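Appendix B, Record 12. Input sequence as logged:
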Amino acid sequence: MTAEGSERRGTRLRRAVRGAVAGCVAGCAALAAAEPVAALVRPQVAPLTVVGGAAIDRAPTPVKEWAIRTFGTDDKPMLQLGIVAVLLVLACALGVVAVRHRRAGSAGVLLIGLVGAAAALTRPDAAGPLDTLPSLVAAVVGALVLYWLSGLAARDRAADVVVAAPTDEAAPAPRNLLARRPFLLAVGGTAVGSVAIGALGRGLAGSRGSGARASREALTLPAPTSPAPPVPKGTRLRIPGISPFRTPNSDFYRVDTALVVPEVDAGTWRLRLHGKGVSRPVTFTLDDLLGRDLIERDITLTCVSNEVGGPYAGNARWLGVPLAALLRGAGVRPPQEGGPADQLVARSVDGMTIGTPVDDVMDGRDALLAVGMNGQPLPFAHGFPVRMVVPGLFGYVSACKWLTDLELTTFDAYDPYWVRRKWARRAPIKTQARIDTPKPFAHPKTGTVMVAGVAWAQHRGIDKVEIRVDDGPWEAAELAAEDSRDTWRQWSYAWRATKGGHNLTVRATDRTGDVQTAQRAGTFPDGASGRHTVVVTVD
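Logged structural output:
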């Protein structure tokens, strides 16, 4: 290759690099410009949020389950990080194009923005054309910035010149390199401006939720008409490593599709009850619910995404309105009494829909419209101001958070969010036991080792827990006292550990006599099954 050809190739490469930098900076400027606009419209319509929500809705079930299994409750930040990475790669590619074809590169940015606008309009909670504004602003800003920077990148010859050192003292010193590179100055200024605008947007979004946060802080929960019975003595085992009987709010699992946690103002919140069998539609305020008879109960919740031995189960003390009484007050009768509706569809402020069998919420169990959790108003992440809690059912068919609408309908007439994605319509929680201690691959010492954990079979209760070491016989574990059949139950087993590697397996039996199956099944379509096994090495 000739020196001239080598130089041309080097020049093209340097221009491509500058184009990629221009595209990356333009992409960041676009996302930053969308932040204050989304804060003024509503934070849920920021481009990353609407595109991320659309990705969640359209992702195949195995992909969703892999994300939850791999990233746990960090699945949403990882999704947003992935979307940012993809957008920046696209922006870099468009920047390379724009160095040679400015209009084509800028048009590509506009097209990406239109995809975001379309995603905003198709969200379940879409409020109208205004929801597209953040994505459209991002598109225009990104396109203009890329057009400007790519022009500078194409014209900037300073980066392609090798500045020689002066040969004698009389020769003039080279000018400041930055002064010769307007492209670098433009890139730096745009980056700094983007950071400032993005920070402004985040600040505006935070102030937008101040009313909702103030309404929660000002809320005083009334005393329950029916307090929770005292927790029996012996319910809580004092064994290091075992899950506490009651899960603190900060540690309670959160699995949902909301990329931005809704912050709902308690003063403006409304709940509409309507549908088949309702004598007349009713709208409740939070004060209406707080003025009714409230009950307080300890109830364990479990997510259908919980693998055998997984962390997505928690026990809390809930305060709320009995759901059956609320429905009967509106004229609703369960199907076995001739009522026309067999499904209760709950809708969230973010558009989530969850369908619950009417028979289950009206069969005498403590189904609640919960307003309190462990003595406090519901945290925003767990559904403030009102959510559903139904003992014995997986969350995806019962535990609607940020509740705003209850509709009586039929399973034949309507498929809620998860059923449309082929999850089972009815999903009672399966009998499960989990080993909390020792942890997998632990190295306990020889002698007595306390094996302990929790077991649950909500609305049926746990009757027995057994442990097996390797291929030995099943041995009965010691059960803690039972609080109620709707809570998990702690258990322990004093194992006389011998040196070497061992498999510890646990199984539970519920009050109906159902023994936890050994048959392994994944979480789809109605919850995982199998027995939890922990491998340890005794030193």
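The longest strand covers residues 500-510.
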